[in-house]
Amino acid sequence: MTLTSFQPPKRLLMGPGPSDVHDRVLAAMGRTTIGHLDPEFIRLMDQIKAHLRAVFFTDNDLTMPISGPATAGQEATIVNLLEPGDKVVVCVNGVFGGRLAEMARRAGAEVTTVDQDWGRAVDPEALRAELKRVGPVKLVAFVHAETSTGALSDGETLAKIAHEAGAMVLMDTVTSLAGVPVRIDDWGIDACYSGTQKCLSCPPGLSPVTFSKRAQDVMNERQAPVQSWFLDLSLLTGYWSGGAQRAYHHTAPVNALYGLHESLVMILEEGLESVWARHRRCHEGLVAGLEAMGLTMAVPAAERVPELNAVRVPEGVDEAGVRRRLLEDHGIEIGAGLGPLAGKIWRIGLMGQSSRPENVARCLAALETVLQQSGYQVRPGEATAAAEAVAG
């Protein structure tokens, strides 16, 4: 057997995640490993918390990255906030709303769902009606930007309706954080989780979370122990919020946290409003180019999240074959549909470092070529010209 090092191929990541990672972040992750209780590493941890608060637009002290992918952050919020018998309403308009509901059930909660068509934002009035029907509940949970469809819901309005009913609010921002405005304090969000591999443009493996004072009080007053030892925030906070003397909990992924710190520095250097505008501009260019090819979007314009674009597959075109040729012939990754949308849509991501006008142009040009090879009629160059006219 010949032993060789792995050399990954060069890809342009324009799927639903991960996104491209900047060389600055990769270089940061390659720096010397130090101990996870080293005073200098503790200083870095505090900087990461401060930067995350800025990106989340919150003053919550309990703001930190969970060691694990976004799913770990999702589960951490659920198992810390809920106890067996708690009543929960979960808004489901795609895969990840369904996952929230399933996690709540496994935590022993009594779950009611507000079901929406896939590809549509959550209807605030449907939530209001369901809360009126079921009576008092402990928690309302929803996905801000549903990764399986690219639908963006009105987080501020949903949170207001939940609070009017006396419920806490849990919001998924895995795809939305640093791509569109997320304002935890202004919207009254009690608990929120995200992921590093989308608009933060950091490798997967960490999940930023934040909890309001109200949520912390609920966790402090719970009667049953948290079902997960590793995700028990009463233990994790001793490591992440323990001042100069940190209580050992687990060996943190030191170099991954170097990368998260650098990605947050880059976002704050650019400025969040500039980052949001860049995502919006690239989205508008991509949509103009796709429509110039005769393709249609799966989500209404007013309900689209700019960083995740669901595109209907034309009749007679091999959905998987197009994705395969884009990857093999052009080095571009886009995503497939999930659940009832499998085989019916492509998901094109414009997340973080991947959200650049030159990447939009490259993706459109490659898609034109591959669609022509599939027998779909396009006019070469028209899509990229339409995108450039909109996004520059």
From TrEMBL:
CDD domains for the chain: AGAT_like
Record's keyword annotation contains Nucleotide-binding: no
Cofactor (UniProt): pyridoxal 5'-phosphate
Domain named Aminotransferase class V: residues: 29-337
InterPro entries: Aminotrans_V_dom, PyrdxlP-dep_Trfase, PyrdxlP-dep_Trfase_major, PyrdxlP-dep_Trfase_small, SP_NH2Trfase/AEP_transaminase
Gene3D superfamilies per UniProt: Aspartate Aminotransferase, domain 1, Type I PLP-dependent aspartate aminotransferase-like (Major domain)
Native organism taxonomy: Bacteria, Pseudomonadati, Pseudomonadota, Gammaproteobacteria, Salinisphaerales
GO MF annotation, one: transaminase activity
Membership in a protein family: Belongs to the class-V pyridoxal-phosphate-dependent aminotransferase family.
Highest taxon above the source species: Bacteria
Name of the featured protein: Alanine--glyoxylate aminotransferase family protein
Keywords, ordered alphabetically: Aminotransferase, Pyridoxal phosphate, Transferase
Pfam annotation, one family: Aminotran_5
